[in-house]
Design goal:
The complex is a heterodimer of chains A (406) and B (406).
Chain A lengths: L9 E4 L5 H10 L4 E6 L24 H4 L6 E4 L5 H12 L3 E4 L5 H4 L4 H7 L4 E4 L16 H7 L2 H4 L14 H4 L1 H20 L3 E4 L4 H6 L1 H10 L16 E6 L4 E6 L3 H11 L14 H6 L1 H12 L4 H10 L4 E3 L3 H5 L2 H5 L3 E6 L3 E6 L3 E3 L17 H9 L3 H9 L5
Parallel strand pairs in A: 1-2, 1-4, 2-3, 4-5, 5-6
Antiparallel strand pairs in A: 7-8, 8-9, 10-11
Helix pairs in contact in A: 1-9
Chain B lengths: L8 E5 L5 H8 L4 E6 L24 H6 L4 E4 L5 H12 L3 E4 L13 H5 L6 E6 L14 H8 L1 H4 L14 H24 L4 E5 H6 L5 H8 L15 E6 L2 E6 L6 H12 L16 H4 L2 H17 L2 H10 L4 E3 L3 H5 L2 H5 L3 E5 L5 E5 L4 E2 L17 H7 L4 H10 L3
Helix pairs in contact in B: 1-7
Classes of the chains: A alpha/beta (406), B alpha/beta (406).
């Protein structure tokens, strides 16, 4: 197996909370030395967010934190002191990438705005992932993952018609659009740097990648003037396309029929030949879509007696896209994910053997299995000070006592 | 200015699971050639269409959104001559993205092994519902069923209704963006070592990355997270109806800071019944979860919401540093003052004539800017041009046309 693709790349990571940390973990998981700069005087809020190991709160016990910070090292620096800012500048000189997701202006106050970093290290790639980006009349407006979903249209579109919008039930932009877009931009900048030696500044607003992924709805408005309303589980032109009840408490199956052949197979598996499925209006996609409300009722009545996983297996075997609405416990036990070794259990000094998501792709010649759990708060402070700042134990101890390394 | 990915050639043979991945490469400067079957890539048949052009393969807005800046070559890969052209294209390429069922390409001599034999540095990224091997590999799936298997479906929706899909085909979106990260990692490695590899992306596994804390909640606390839409979890946060839609408020559960700001704002608005919101009880999370607290809050805040539209509430709340934002529709997003101020949307030509506003740069790289270089291509628009670049003679191209290979 080849070495990790980002071996030898060092990242000084000021990201905290969600999207930023999830981005740098993707880089850390592929061999970058990510130094997470934190402070115990204002801890990363997700360190104090549930779930906690055994339900017991503590800065080193949150699963919200650990899954966003695998493979990283933690350095505590209290950025409020002048001495700390001097140390940070020295670290900047030794890094390839500097990352943050603060509101615009915060890094400048630390003496670590892009211009300042560029002066120290012209080859540095600098990524700033503020919520609104570094320009525009609302650049200082505040929000969180959930409010970003609302701001960009995802919340409005994810709803049943006529009911209040509900969204995905998660901070979706934090976990998919933002970290992946940011990682892609950083890797592209790294490619440019390898060719030219040139660093650069990347401004990524935490709203814009999700809007890019909703582009078809945006174009429906800009081209057709159609300001889309939510459609629940439907898909235009297709039926049955939805989520139907199954046997047991709160069990559901997702079904997405596209072709007439798939509908025929669905009818057979559900035993609908003789009954309503014989209605000729439903033999074509147009007819099924036009009659989708009645069709949904017939399908729901037929699925209700089935076990979701068994029914999904039967339908899939007949070529019909179907799947049980898996809850987290079932996802963890999923045989497909197990085959891919998606979930890994890593030993954390305080939490014990705990679950981590591995990056969602495999390489034929590079092993990207995880080896290091998330760090304890300040776990690598002394190590990093020795290694990169040339300090001895006494100097480290003095700075800890003075509150610089805290 | 040179582009970040200048000189990289990408063969994009993908369907809906991967078209956005190719676009990410194209708009940072790679030469991306969309290789389509004679009938066109699948998204050309997907709604919404430009009004009056329903069914026109050049007018699917979903296709147009995800295929800008690419060139199109139409190839019949069922024919030996078509396969040979693909091998020639891949010999001169750095990356090939494909979404066929596992084994489909290998059976035609155009899988990773077949192509890498002619081009050692080639990276092939395969995006499939469940991965290249293992249980269900090669079985049918759809965006909705990948959301189901990946667990995100179970988290969205109303507590009293069925699980609800994330709008906008987010399983395929997740696969596209994580595939882009994976491809870029493999490309960086190939450019350093001269050795490419096969990248195996599972759509299901990409969806799992978006489960926020659900996996850890089960592993650490034995708790299965369920959908909670439609329920106000605590007073001071949630969805509120206003004059022209909804707003999303997050002023509680995040420490006292935002609650204090909220009271200041409401005082300034002259809200009626403010005395009901004062007192120590409002700093207790347990009190905020009571019906009494929720009702008291709604009585005061609901009245303010009824006075204004969502854009006005956003402006007023943010002035007092209260995390509130509008639940925007796509139309609201297009007219957002912030996005307009940042010139996020770009006016871009459409393949059938005219122009439309489209989402622009999802990130801003100072030295190697994102750029939309051309409209989404017409089917096979660049077949002759690309084959001539490969050194095919006019006569040979005519012959291939007559055979229907191109």
């Amino acid at each position: 197996m080849a070495s990790q693709p980002l071996a030898g790349i060092r990242i000084l990571d000021f990201c905290w909370v969600g999207a930023g940390s999830y981005m740098t973990r993707l880089l850390a998981d592929h061999g970058a030395d990510v130094i997470k700069v934190e402070t115990s005087t204002n801890v990363d809020p997700v360190r104090m967010s549930p779930p906690y190991a055994d339900g017991v709160a503590g800065v080193n016990r949150s699963g919200y934190f650990t899954d966003r910070n695998s493979s990283k090292r933690s350095l505590t620096l209290n950025m409020k002191t002048a001495r700390t800012r001097e140390l940070a500048r020295e670290l900047v000189r030794q890094c390839d990438i500097v990352s943050n997701n603060f509101t615009p202006g915060v890094m400048d106050r630390f003496g670590l705005g892009y211009d300042q970093v560029h002066a120290l290290n012209p080859a540095a790639i600098y990524i700033a992932m503020s919520m609104q980006g570094d320009s525009g009349p609302e650049r200082d407006y505040l929000g969180f993952g959930l409010t970003i979903s609302a701001l960009v249209g995802l919340h409005h579109l994810t709803a049943l018609p006529g009911r209040e919008p509900v969204g995905t039930g998660t901070n979706y932009p934090d976990h998919v659009p933002n970290p992946a877009h940011a990682a892609f931009a950083v890797l592209a900048a790294l490619r440019h740097r390898r060719r030219t030696g040139q660093g650069q500044y990347i401004d990524m607003a935490q709203t814009e990648p999700t809007i890019a992924l909703l582009a078809p709805a945006i174009l429906d408005y800009t081209v057709n003037g159609n300001d889309q309303s939510p459609v629940g589980n439907q898909s235009p032109g297709r039926a049955p396309h939805g989520v139907y009840p199954c046997r047991g408490d709160d069990q559901w199956i997702a079904l997405a029929v596209r072709t007439d052949g798939q509908w025929q197979a669905t009818r057979e598996v559900l035993g609908l030949q003789a009954a309503a499925g014989a209605d000729p209006d439903w033999s074509t996609a147009e007819g099924r879509y036009a009659g989708r409300d009645a069709l949904d009722q017939v399908v729901a009545a037929a699925t209700a007696g089935h076990d979701a996983e068994t029914l999904a297996r039967q339908l899939i075997a007949r070529g019909v896209p179907a799947g049980p609405a898996a809850t987290a416990d079932r996802v963890i036990a999923d045989p497909r994910l197990a085959h891919r070794e998606h979930f890994q259990f890593l030993h954390h000094p305080e939490m014990g053997e705990r679950i981590y998501n591995r990056p969602p792709f495999r390489f034929s010649a590079t092993d990207n299995s995880l080896t290091r759990p998330a760090p304890l708060l300040g776990q690598h402070t002394a190590e990093i000070c020795r290694e990169l700042l040339g300090m001895n134990e006494t100097q480290v101890d003095d700075l800890v006592r003075d509150g610089v390394l805290s | 200015m040179t582009a970040a990915l200048a000189g990289i050639r990408v063969i994009d043979r993908s369907g809906p699971e991967g078209n956005y991945c190719g676009k990410l490469f194209a708009e940072l400067g790679a030469d991306v050639i969309l290789v389509e079957p004679p009938g066109g890539t699948a998204l050309r048949g997907e709604p919404p269409f430009a009004a009056g052009r329903e069914g026109d393969p050049e007018a699917s807005l979903r296709f147009l959104a995800y295929n800008t800046s690419k060139r199109s070559v139409a190839l019949d890969l069922g024919q030996a001559a078509g396969q040979e052209i693909l091998r020639d294209l891949a010999s001169a390429a750095d990356l090939l993205i494909e979404t066929d069922p596992p084994g489909w390409a290998a059976a035609r001599g155009i899988g990773y092994t077949g192509l890498a034999g002619h081009n050692q540095r080639l990276v092939v990224t395969s995006i499939t519902p469940f991965g290249q091997d293992g249980p269900y590999s090669g079985y049918p799936a759809d965006d909705l069923t990948c959301l189901a298997f990946g667990g995100l479906l179970s988290l969205g929706g109303y507590a009293d209704g069925p699980p609800l899909q994330a709008a906008g085909q987010q399983a395929y979106a997740a696969a596209s963006v994580f595939a882009a990260v994976a491809s870029m990692l493999a490309l960086l490695q190939a450019q350093a070592s001269g050795q490419g590899q096969h990248v195996d992306v599972s759509v299901q596994e990409c969806v799992v990355m978006g489960l926020e804390t659900a996996i850890q909640a089960y592993d650490l606390e034995g708790r299965v997270r369920k959908r909670t839409g439609g329920i106000t979890r605590r007073a001071g946060s949630g969805i509120f109806r206003c004059r022209d839609g909804y707003v999303f408020l997050m002023a509680s559960g995040l420490g006292e800071r935002f609650w204090v700001s909220l009271l200041d704002w409401l005082d300034d608005e002259g809200a009626v019944g403010m005395e009901a919101l004062r007192g120590d009880a409002w700093t207790q999370p347990s009190y905020l979860e009571t019906d009494e607290a929720k009702d008291s809050f709604l009585a005061v805040f609901g009245a303010i919401c009824q006075q204004y539209g969502k854009a006005e509430l956003y402006r007023r709340a943010q002035k007092w540093r209260v995390p509130l934002c509008p639940v925007n529709t796509p139309g609201d997003v297009v007219s957002s003052a912030q996005l307009t101020g940042r010139q996020f949307f770009v006016e871009h030509p459409l393949p059938y004539g005219g122009t439309a506003l489209m989402p622009g740069a999802p990130y801003r790289l100072s030295q190697t800017p994102w750029q939309m270089t051309r409209p989404a291509p017409r089917l096979g628009e660049h077949t002759g041009e690309v084959l001539r670049e490969l050194g095919y003679s006019g006569e040979r191209i005519d012959g291939l046309r007559r055979m229907g290979a191109i």
